[in-house]
């Protein structure tokens, strides 16, 4: 992958998760409408402080990706957040899945950009 394209993708992913991570502590993005089972699940995540942990992970990962420090590790950690976001929206809130899909695609592209860093992990 071209280094300039990778840098742009890495910074885009970093900004994306940084904005959503900070939003969990200082809400500035308007809430989207959710109801039924999605609202119950989201309320449980909020009440258990799980969303605060996700916010911390997103904020740290966003900063790491923007400043290119521990980016390969943070991209791996963010994959769990990406997959969970897509699964949440696919099963409980399909109308608002677009952002989660963008997150997943950006995360996969950044992982591909860091593929040389994972060779030792994937060696049998």
Structural class: mainly alpha
Radius of gyration: 15 Å
Number of strands: 0
The succession of helices and strands, N to C, reads HHHHHH
* Percentage beta strand: under 5%
> So how many helices?
6
N- to C-terminal separation?
25 Å
Poorly predicted residue ranges: none
Described by strand count, sense and barrel closure, the largest sheet is:
none
Count of the domains: 1
Write down the overall mean pLDDT: 92
Oligomer: single chain
> Which word captures the global form?
globular
Would you mind describing this structure in some detail?
The protein has 124 residues and is an all-alpha fold. The chain has one domain (3-27, 52-117). The protein has six helices and no strands. The protein has helices at 3-23, 37-47, 50-66, 71-92, 98-113, 119-122. Helix 3 packs across helix 4 (71-92). The mean pLDDT is 92.
In short, what is this structure?
This protein has helices at 3-23, 37-47, 50-66, 71-92, 98-113, 119-122.
List the helices and strands and how they pair.
Layout: H1 3-23, H2 37-47, H3 50-66, H4 71-92, H5 98-113, H6 119-122
Helix pairs in contact: 1-3, 1-5, 3-4, 4-5
Distinctive features:
73% helix, mainly alpha, 124 residues, single chain, globular, 0% strand, 6 helices
